[in-house]
Write a structure and sequence with these properties.
This protein is α/β, with parallel strands linked by helices. The chain has 13 helices and 17 strands. The protein folds into 2 domains: about 90-305 and about 420-475, Alkaline Phosphatase, subunit A, CATH 3.40.720.10; about 310-410, Gyrase A, domain 2 (2-Layer Sandwich), CATH 3.30.1360. The protein is globular, with a radius of gyration of 34 Å. It starts with a helix and ends in a 7-residue tail after the last helix. The structure holds zinc ion (ZN). This is Sulfatase N-terminal domain-containing protein.
Length: about 475
């Protein structure tokens, strides 16, 4: 049974061993034809394999280098990195707010100083998300407490409650719930200073707004003076030096309301804010502390133009329900209605919805009214007695008014749903705990409270921020 196979083997062996029957000796010295063919094939294969292996090796090496670069060096990498927080003896945070600094304003003009912070710091790539309503007081107080407005109590810039009314000049502690950062800092035995911030003049816990470190609001004080005062705190002995400071600028919100977000006046205001950031940076550099101090540059909300006659009039709802002026706590962009006792809010909502969806109310489809408990959960705007029972969400850039008027309607507004991109603001973190040239995804401003307490290594109060958030934005080693 083995014979045929043996014959075949012999035949092959013969062919390989006897290529030239005329010259056996030569045949012994020269490779056989088959061997030559086989060897040249083998060489071709080897060369091919070698080239393929070389290509694979090159591609693998290049990929490994690229991966390592992205992982450890890449500015946009949100993952592991070798960079670690630089240990600082007395961590210090300057929290700067530029009111109404809509995300994207920094691209309107040359902003060398803001760019410097961005290039050497960490930026919310698509801006920071404000809380709802996207108004000044609720947002500034959320930034320093980590609480949503329904928890910190400042549910709007002004609102009636009980027999009293909250205004932007109300400094009674009863309005201001939660624990702002200046209170947390002093509670931890450290010093804080506030150069304007909503709520900073309110006496709370250990914080009694000391005159030397807590400035009473006066919008006429030049921005330069505010910056220079904050810089002067670095001349104090370390034991007296505040470790947390706020600095507030009214611009570009002031211009945004007047002319909307796309006017050259905004561009000028942005240039001015950039100059102030430059003044701060250079002042810190002169004192030799710029690289050791943490600067958080934020805004409270964005801005949208309202020049397109996008109006909704409550008087147009009269065929379904009369909404008298004195039921309305605020019109635009936050519509809030408190009907008198004896009138069912749910009936009011039902009738308003009927009118708004009838097609007979001008722009009716751009106003959605809710009982506050039915508002989308993501707005966190239900669980407070201070919030009136009916809340209206207005489409971006629309305005609600009581009745038709000949008033010129052109400017800018904010206060809308915080889902609108136009309501986003900036966030830049620069200092020993922030990676350089890093972009992070957008986040809500209630996350900043835990971020600051982590940088300062102090115990914070319970809040609505995510406990793990600081580890996603600060460099490893911030806590060691
Ligand atoms: Zn504002």
């Amino acid at each position: 049974m083995a014979e045929p196979m043996g014959s075949a083997s012999l035949a092959i062996a013969k062919l390989e061993a006897d290529p030239d029957p005329n010259d056996q000796s030569t045949a012994l010295l020269q490779p056989s034809f088959a061997t030559r063919v086989f060897t040249s094939r083998q060489r071709a294969c080897s060369a091919l394999v070698f080239i393929v292996m070389l290509i694979i090796t090159c591609v693998s090496t290049a990929s490994a280098i690229a991966f390592a670069f992205l992982l450890f060096r890449g500015p946009n990498s949100g993952s592991l990195r070798l960079e670690r927080a630089r240990p600082i003896q007395n961590p210090t945070v300057i929290l700067v707010s530029s009111d109404g600094f809509r995300f994207g304003y920094q691209f309107k003009t040359q902003t060398p100083n803001i760019d410097r912070l961005t290039a050497n710091g960490t930026e919310a790539e698509a801006g920071m998300i404000p809380v709802f309503p996207t108004l000044t007081f609720p947002n500034h107080y959320s930034i320093v407490t980590g609480l949503y407005p329904c928890s910190h109590g400042i549910i709007s810039n002004g609102f009636p409650y009980g027999n009293d009314t909250f205004t932007m000049k109300s400094h009674e502690p009863k309005w201001w719930l939660g624990e702002p950062l200046w209170e947390t800092v002093t509670k931890n035995g450290l010093k804080a200073a506030t150069y304007f911030w909503p709520g900073s003049e309110v006496k709370k816990g250990n914080w009694d707004c000391p005159p030397s470190l807590c400035k009473k609001y006066d919008g006429s004080i030049p921005f330069e003076e505010r910056v220079d005062t904050v810089l002067s705190y670095f001349d104090l002995p370390v034991s007296d030096r505040p470790v947390f400071m706020t600095l507030y600028f009214e611009d570009p919100d002031h211009q945004g309301h007047k002319v909307g977000p796309d006017d050259p006046e905004i561009t000028e205001a942005i240039s001015m804010i950039d100059k102030m950031m430059g003044r701060l940076i250079q002042g810190l550099e002169r004192k030799g502390v710029f690289e050791d101090v943490t600067i958080l540059m934020v805004g409270d909300h964005g801005m949208v133009g309202t020049c397109d006659k996008k109006l909704i009039f409550l008087e147009d709802l009269a065929p379904w329900i009369e909404i008298p002026h004195d039921w309305v706590q605020s019109y635009s962009p936050l519509l809030s209605i408190r009907p008198p006792h004896g009138i069912s809010p749910s009936e009011v909502v039902a009738k308003m919805r009927e009118g708004l969806s009838s097609g007979k109310v001008k722009n009716g489809m751009y106003l959605k009214v809710y009982l506050k408990e039915d508002l989308p959960e993501r707005l966190h705007y239900s669980y407070s007695d201070r919030i009136p029972p009916i809340v209206g969400l207005i489409e971006e850039a629309y305005k609600v008014e009581q009745k038709t008027s000949k008033r010129q309607e052109c400017g800018g507004a904010h206060g809308y749903d915080n889902e609108f991109f136009s309501m986003r603001t900036i966030f830049i973190g620069h200092g020993p705990q922030f990676a350089k040239s890093r972009k992070v995804p957008s986040f809500m401003n209630v996350e900043l409270y835990n971020t600051v307490t982590s940088i300062l290594k102090i115990q914070g109060a319970p809040n609505n921020g995510t406990p793990s958030f600081p580890s996603t934005i600060l460099l490893p080693g911030t806590w060691s």
